[in-house]
Design goal:
Strand content: 15-25%
Shape: globular
Distance between the termini: 34 Å
Number of strands: 8
Length: 278
Amino acid sequence: MATITTKDGTEIFYKDWGPKDATPLVFHHGWPLSSDDWDAQMLFFLAKGYRVVAHDRRGHGRSAQVGTGHDMDHYAADASAVAEHLDLRNAVHIGHSTGGGEVARYVAQYGQPQGRVAKAVLISAVPPLMVKTAANPGGTPIAVFDGFRQALAANRSQFFLDVASGPFYGFNRPGATVSQGIIQNWWRQGMTGGANAHYEGIKAFSETDQTEDLKAITVPTLILQGDDDQVVPYQDAALLQAKLIRHATLKIYPGFPHGMATTHADAINADLLAFIRT
């Protein structure tokens, strides 16, 4: 397996496919998954001649199940360590959900200052802030995230099955075409990671205020989200991202779920390709 070791001694697994002189596309996965969640995108863009890179976040997938560093600062630093190790330049960084928060912090604090990033894409992403506060009245109440933590601690396996078979892909909607393979793959990815990383990751994706990260992004940024996202409400995510990022292009998909990059890969891949080529 291809791995790097970060400054704090954490082993991070990564994939690096395609021509090394091609434009690199770097994919950042959501909670509690792994780089495998990008299969539909990585194979598509690999066939188009791009270099595709993705890593497993610390505590997730095949990366080390360390006991510390499960926060957005470490997530971004780990992503930067991979980019520096591979010397990726003029890269397009693409993040889904929690991975969107990782992209925002990486681009703002590492990618742009180092001159390594050309464009960014946020898909169903968590910034600027998920949790409801006085300054963020449209956010999700903290009780919801406390419920996530309680369910994870009580029975992580069942909780992950419930999320994948329900709101994540919109499989709980009337008339939805349910894929057991997608559900099982989500569960598999989640259960490969560490419970501690997943538990602490809930705070990372829900309570990290990334308003300043979004304001700092100057590269062209594509923002994609479905209006039937039951995990990250688009009114408090994509719409605010588009207001805060200087050079943003926003697209809202009617009826698409949170996990639309999997359930509607053809549509998402086509829009990603058009943005990357412009």
